[in-house]
Amino acid sequence: MSHKTAEEKLRRLDIELPTPAPPGGSYCQFTTTGNLVYVAGQTPVDSEGTILFKGKCGADHDVASAYKAATLCGINLLTNLKVACGGDLERVEKVVKVNGYCACTPDFTEHPKVINGASDLFVEVFGEKGRHARTAIGVQSLPFGAVVEVEAIVQIKPVSKRASLGSSLGFS
User: pLDDT tens digit string along 118-167?
Assistant: First the structure.
């Protein structure tokens, strides 16, 4: 059985990573310290930053619809993670932690099922490396009326000093 890359798995899932949407405020889409990438909260937006799933779980969205929104958040997270990895998702060693937020009515209690939209995607794309610790909570509102927001901490392989030196000298 041959090893499939993250990119091959995305193609198999018929997912094309979009152009990263601009941040919705004064922050970076990701920041890196050591071998950890902290990807900012991603909402279900298109590449222009338009929210595609607005409203609240329990009123405007059922679990299935909000799951799709969380999957789109996961796709947007992978888009920014790919940029953080210099275009190479094979640098991902482990999805460490995922935090998911659902804008919801007070009686909505299915947050984990919604955030599975992102979690399931990470496992599909990265296999065991995609399994992670997670928090899924309900909140009163999210930026720009989004129904879901997902953020993650991901461990990546360092760029080798040899590769880094070679690319800085104009070699590939």
Answer: 999 999 999 999 999 999 999 999 999 999 999 999 999 988 655 554 45
| HEC secondary structure over 82-114 | HHHCCCCHHHEEEEEEEEEEEEECCCCCCHHHH
> Tokens 């935090």 sit at which residue?
99
Rounded to whole angstroms, the Cα distance separating 106 from 120 reads 26
Among 69, 87, 72, 86, residue whose Cα is nearest residue 7 = 87
Measured N-to-C along each axis, helices 63-84 and 111-126 cross at an angle, to the nearest 10 degrees, of 40
- The widest CA-to-CA distance across the chain, in whole angstroms, is 59
Supply 50's token pair. Answer: 């338009």
Hunting for tokens 């941040």 — which residue is that? 23
Which domains are seen in the chain, by residue range?
29-156 (3.30.1330.40)
Q: Kind of pairing, strands 92-103 and 133-139? A: parallel
Joined tokens for residue 14:
């018929």
For the entire predicted model, the pTM comes to 0.90
